[in-house]
Amino acid sequence: MQVTFVPPHIPDILLKDFQPRSLLKRPDNTPEKARFLVVDAHNHLFGDLPPEELLRIMDAVGVQTWVNVTGNVVLPFDEAGYTIERRPIEGFIDHYVKAYPGRFTCLTMSEFARWENFGILAEDDFVDRAIQTFEADVAKGACGFKLTKELGLRFRDKTGAMIPVDDARLEPIFRRVEEMGLPTLIHVSDPEGFFIPMDETNEHYPVLQEFPSWAFQDSFFSKNELLEQRNRLIARHPKMNFILPHVANSPEDLDRVASWLDTYSNTYIDISARVDELGRQPYTARDFFIEYQDRILFGIDMPVSEGAYRAYFRFLETRDEYFEYPDYLGRWGHCRWRIYGLDLPDEALRKVYHENAERVAQGR
Prior knowledge:
The chain is α/β, with parallel strands linked by helices. It has one domain: TIM Barrel (Alpha-Beta Barrel), CATH 3.20.20.140. Helices cover 33% and strands 9% of the residues. The strands form three sheets. It has a five-stranded parallel beta sheet with strand order 6-7-8-9-10. Strands 1-2-5 form a three-stranded parallel beta sheet. Helix 1 (51-61) links the parallel strand 1 (38-43) and strand 2 (63-68). Helix 3 runs parallel beside helix 4 (171-179). The longest helix has 16 residues, at 346-361.
């Protein structure tokens, strides 16, 4: 008797619905708390998370100090993935910074926190007003300056021309920040995949499909031009500490980041929202962290949760293999690949978790 094998029906699944569960059997050594006290040096107040709830999460995972790098805004994302609501910085300072000493601090974006109107230099008094707002915000309690990626990508002058990052017309603002001895967190460009065509070869395609406003392939300046503009600005201000977030926005090329750190002794990087890139190159990333352990700050740059922090601690502290991480918006199950832990030595962990941030805050 001949038996004919009939294969089972295999349903069609759209790529966006494909969320495979790993069948790999490896231990999960996720820390409940970080091994050392943590300064989250790069985050935002996403929505209206009250300080009591934020503190509850911080205490649960071992975060001592939380830095709101956009102290005069909150960041609720709309369907396009891009929106902002501007609020007076006093709200964060009064209800978080002053109410809970030592637990919160913030930067100010000054007049650059005007994303509802990208024509910042269309107004003749913009530079003077930006300096005045910066000085006023520092007097209220801001501890530094945040320059947003919209400079070089969206901000224009009165002629409609895109404003480069190192535009000479903005120099008085940077000179004043430098004179006051305060650090500048300068976000320039975005992931490499945001600047190349959105086709089947782009590993960021699912993200860009969800948030098309993050695609800059047709922007006026290329990614390399933007980074060169940033570096010229850094070179002009050797006495100012610059924090280059998201691994200097070049985590895909750590050799390049290393060359910048070697060239510009007044620069630091943070690792916020880039464990995906770092965690898929664990050998190179571990060597990089150990070599530049004095120049790296901790941060997550995503909605606060115990799980998000613990994923970062697992990445830094353990040898765990092939595990998930939260995406740009703190969501789980949206990761593009799995990552691997770095198992950093204690000396490097202390510096990355809090010592480097404390040194930057003290102007050293």
